[in-house]
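Entry type: protein chain
Record version: 2
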Amino acid sequence: MKFRILYLIVFIPLIAIYNLGCQPAGQEITSEEFLQEHIEWLSHSDREGRLAGTIQEADAANYIADRFLQYGLEPAGDRGTYFQQFTLSGPMAQVMEKENYLSRNVAGLIEGREHPGRYIIIGAHYDGQGKGGAISMEHNSAPAIHPSADDNASGIAGLLYQARHFYDNPPNHTILLVAFSGEEMGLLGSRYFVSEMEMPRDSVMAMINMDMIGRLDEGELTIFGTGTANIWDNLLESVPGENLTITKTPGGMGSSDHASFYEAGIPVLHYFSGIHDDYHRSTDTSEKINYIGMQWILGHIKNTVETLDEMDIAEVEFLGSTDPRGSAMRGDRMRLGVIPDYSYSGNGFRIESVLQGQPADQAGFKNGDVVLEMNGEPIQDLLDYAQKLGAFNEGDEVTFKVQRGDDEIELNVVF
């Protein structure tokens, strides 16, 4: 019955959509009002945090599809719709009691004028943390709605912003815009999307990901994936970054949807305005969004895509050497139970947050610990850790050496 209820919700005919959200005649909505409208709707308490597999997530999917239709995008989902359905599975879906529930990606496209068979993908995830639980940073707290405004209503508002812009300014290459779900449960939607792609992968120039772009602080923006193609360094140097201080991180892996495309050999960029105290908490609310900063970031993304759109696909070469050791977040590996600090650039890897009840928590890991060794083997970085972690099995005991402040300590983990 769960499957049938959600299926009906998603495929109800779209009614009176084209005029939804339109301003009265003669009134032009500003960019800030546009972004604020979408973020406030998505993060409203009525959406109950948009957890994948819930009716509220399906409601958000319909909302995004409505806007795709309103902005003129062609459906790019299943059976002539905007929706691509998949089934939630894996450890996090089990923990969140959503395994075998239906979820869906929302996909629309703007056909290229000159190269309709070549693609630039722009994506963001729209699922949130629901009422907390295992994916919340509010440990030992009663269930509470996590509005998920920055993570990632901000990215979806940015996706709709780009959809409207590129429909009004037709591109040379086809632009495929995708709102992913299941990201919070292990990149489930984007991995499914990549596994089901019908176009040849060498016809995709790049995937641009927007995840947490709403809390720009002093103009400091991180762009991940700058080492995944031969063109990124020169291209990004040519794109004006007015008001932005950009940190470029070469690796294409991470805990957001761009990683699914990188694993498939597709160049990626991931735009990210930074971790903050409201991350995965009930305090991630819309009034804290920096809408001016969002416009700076979205302007940079727009210019990056337009510059890429002027290039020939033959000029773009995927580079996999930046991350030769595979995914750091694969669900089929042992889980330490931590959220890494992706902005850390020293030896080892720094732990942003320790998840309650997971092996790291039980072993005594703390937020801010830097992992230096596993069973005496040095850890160079997050990806080196991921490779070494894959050698262990359930029940194994592993000794970790971590830097905590000025001290180096050893912690024993049982997987």
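Comment: The chain has two domains: 2-315, 338-414.
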